[in-house]
Write a structure and sequence with these properties.
By secondary structure, this protein is an alpha/beta fold. It is built from 13 helices and 19 strands. Helix 1 runs parallel beside helix 2 (47-54), helix 4 packs across helix 7 (128-139) and helix 9 (214-225) crosses helix 13 (384-399). The longest helix has 16 residues, at 384-399.
Length: 400
């Protein structure tokens, strides 16, 4: 079979060197990659590097090899175009249909999915002109990944950093897997919780659970690839930030509730994939609880944590907001799931059986998605991203 054809556009930002890692991941995973840099990007990484790493000649001009009509053919034959880094200038040109070099001509002729990975200073990213250009591109079906927060050029720190190349690759892989279909979550804001909350007993101990957060992260990465703006509220996962998601870090159930309710105010979808502790210690001990010879420990008194899923479902920020819950069960899985769906009042409930060696920490999952309309969608054992895609398929149908 022919290798999937990917065009890697590189515009003139300091983060251009990171695109070498993205190129390596794409080529080593079996993609045929043609690098199309801008003239200014060659000040950061030279044409010889791109040619050697991709195995293809590199040009910035439409006048080279004119008989092959490269300014048309490259975009026409591509299965995916990804621009990384995408500068503010490149986003503006793409949004307004300008075509003054080979890369911008390629963007105009491409009929395949297009992914932009922006990188620029915070002020440039937040400027109204850039935000309008991003909104225009997303409205037309392009996937524009949210930039990361971190160290920028010089001493500056903020939002605008190019996401990790490995995470950009994951977005590209998911976009390619979906094929030439419009991103069905474009223009939507989704909020996802992931991980497991920890309820402190004293400065060194806590009540927790085995949740790794991997299913929530799969939901976030898949939503980004389907065009959504993603807010990920993560609790104690230790996982690298998924490319394109705004990450809010919390520890306890009370903190998670506060972050989810705030983000849900302007969300189209809320997915509660985190394992939230049902109870917390009634009293926090300021000093480490000591073991005393000959004495049994004092009984541990617990109090209920807030029911975040039920609260979000009962008090939706806007009509039509879709709410998805997760139910981790150890027995009577379906019966308990159906009762929980009724009690929580959400639109969809993903029910799976968990245990010490089931689901938690695994790269795979299986579940049944129960819906408020009575339908049930089984998801066979497989990668967690497959379950994520099923969830988003069902959510997208309800957003209709």
């Amino acid at each position: 079979m022919d290798k999937p054809k990917v065009v890697l556009g590189v515009s003139g930002g300091i983060a251009a060197y990171k695109a070498c890692e993205l190129l390596r991941r794409l080529t080593e995973s079996g993609h045929d990659v043609r690098v199309v840099p801008t003239e200014s990007s060659l000040h950061f990484v030279g044409a010889a590097t791109w040619s050697a790493l991709s195995g293809h000649p590199v040009s910035t001009e439409v006048w080279n090899d004119v008989h092959e009509v490269p300014h048309v053919r490259i975009g026409q034959h591509a299965d995916l175009v990804v621009v990384a880094p995408a500068t503010a200038d490149m986003l503006a040109k793409a949004a307004h249909g300008l075509a003054d070099d080979l890369l911008t001509n390629t963007l105009l002729t491409a009929r395949c999915p297009v992914v932009f990975a922006p990188a620029m200073h915070t002020e440039m990213w937040e400027h109204p002109a850039t935000q309008e250009n991003v909104a225009t591109l997303r409205r037309r079906g392009a996937v524009v990944i949210e930039p990361a927060v971190g160290r920028l050029t010089g001493v500056d720190t903020g939002k605008g950093r190019l996401p990790d190349p490995g995470e950009i690759y994951e977005v590209c892989r998911r976009v390619l897997a979906r094929g030439p279909v419009a991103p069905d979550l474009a223009g939507r804001h989704v909020v996802i919780s992931a991980g497991g909350t920890r309820e402190p007993l004293d400065p060194v101990r806590y009540l927790g659970n085995r949740s790794s957060g991997k299913q929530g992260y799969a939901l976030a990465r898949t939503a980004v690839a389907r065009g959504a703006r993603v807010t990920l509220v993560e609790a104690n996962t230790g996982l690298p930030d998924p490319s394109g998601a705004d990450v809010v870090r919390v520890g306890t159930a009370v903190q998670l509730r506060e972050a989810v309710l705030k983000a849900a105010e302007e969300a189209d979808v809320v997915v509660m994939a985190a394992a939230v502790a049902d109870f917390r210690p009634a009293e926090y001990v300021a000093g480490k609880i000591k073991k005393k010879d000959g004495q049994e420990p004092a009984p541990l008194v617990l109090v209920r944590n807030p029911d975040i899923l039920a609260e979000v479902a009962a008090d939706r920020a806007a009509p039509g907001q879709v709410v998805v819950g997760f139910a981790a069960e150890t027995d009577n899985v379906l019966a308990n799931g159906r009762e929980k769906l009724r009690r929580k009042g959400c639109d969809l409930l993903v029910v799976n059986e968990v245990g010490e060696r089931k689901t938690f920490g695994s790269e795979e999952n299986e579940a049944i998605v129960l819906a408020a309309d009575g339908s049930e969608t089984p998801v066979p054992h497989g990668p967690k991203e497959a379950l994520a895609d099923t969830v988003w398929d069902l959510v997208s149908a309800r957003l209709g």
